[in-house]
Design brief:
The protein is an alpha+beta fold and about 290 residues long. It contains 7 helices and 12 strands.
């Protein structure tokens, strides 16, 4: 009898201990952010928590929605955050069912189609990526930040060297470097690891997507000023009508409009990194070649 009573007491204690953990787990399936009025739930919340949370991804700035990818033309469920856009790929198995849009590549192509001017190749503890021919160095702590916060899967390959750029949010000038999924900014006014911050690419992309289309403004029609009449002539007040085209121009044979997308590579742009010395940056620190 005493043993049965003891077992019941132990079971009750275990139940009381497990209830808070179960409740906390249930709450973590969805989280509401009062700062922006949006919720994150399910696999997006799991990814957000596991990959840097607020510091790396930022607050959610949209609800989940269906969107056609600029990269492969497929439609996915996505959600925008201040510094990223999450895509749900149900055709993949976890953890690859949540991927990040290449917002860094899209913005770099839009701003610098011929490449940014004034790029500097960092030579401090630098690694050259053979896929893009760009180096990632540590003069501003970019290489350390890249390695500590997700590396290739989170930020992608470097697309540029380091150069000076005016921040679109505050108008200040910072040293930056572009990656497939991020832009690193060097903030000397901050201390420690906060000297490297991420551009709010998700905010920029979401605002551009949400902005209403502006109709084109047609130039005003300027009526020709009649020449002054000479003595003995009557000035005409009639206005000449514009000539009416007799033929309609046709597009050239075989011409197809550009879709403006970024193609090439796999869907998410995750290609295995190949180092110029054959080693991963977490293992060796060779001089730049």
């Amino acid at each position: 009898m005493q043993r049965r009573t003891l077992n019941l007491a132990l079971a009750l204690i275990l139940t009381l201990l497990l209830l808070p953990a179960a409740a906390a787990h249930a709450q973590e399936t969805s989280h509401f952010f009062g700062e922006t009025g949006h919720s994150v739930q399910g696999r997006f919340l799991q990814y957000w928590n596991a990959h840097g949370g607020l510091a790396i991804q930022g607050y959610p700035i949209s609800d989940p929605l269906a969107e056609q990818s600029d990269q492969d033309g497929q439609t996915y469920v996505v959600q925008y955050f201040e510094r990223a856009e999450f895509q749900l790929h149900q055709e993949n198995q976890p953890p690859n069912d949540v991927l990040l849009s290449q917002l860094g590549a899209f913005r770099y192509q839009a701003l610098y189609p011929g490449g940014a001017a004034g790029q500097v190749e960092d030579t401090v503890r630098a690694y050259r990526f053979l896929e893009t021919g760009k180096t990632l160095g540590d003069s501003y702590g970019f290489r350390t930040y890249w390695q500590r916060h997700g590396g290739l899967a989170q930020f992608g390959l470097p697309l540029s060297g380091e150069f000076s750029e005016v921040n679109s949010h505050n108008g200040s000038n910072y040293q930056v470097q572009y990656f497939e999924r991020a832009v690193f900014e060097y903030h000397p006014e901050n201390q420690g690891e906060n000297q490297v911050l991420l551009t709010q690419l998700g905010t920029i992309r979401w605002q551009a997507r949400s902005a209403p289309a502006v109709p084109p403004v047609l130039p005003p029609v300027v009526q020709p000023t009649p020449a002054p009449a000479t003595p003995g002539q009557v000035q005409s007040t009639a206005t000449a009508l514009p000539a009416v085209p007799t033929t309609t121009p046709q597009p050239a044979a075989g011409h197809q409009p550009c879709d403006g997308g970024l193609h090439g590579g796999d869907r998410c742009g995750l290609q295995p990194a190949r180092w110029s010395d054959g080693a991963h940056p977490d293992q060796l620190h060779p001089p730049l070649r």
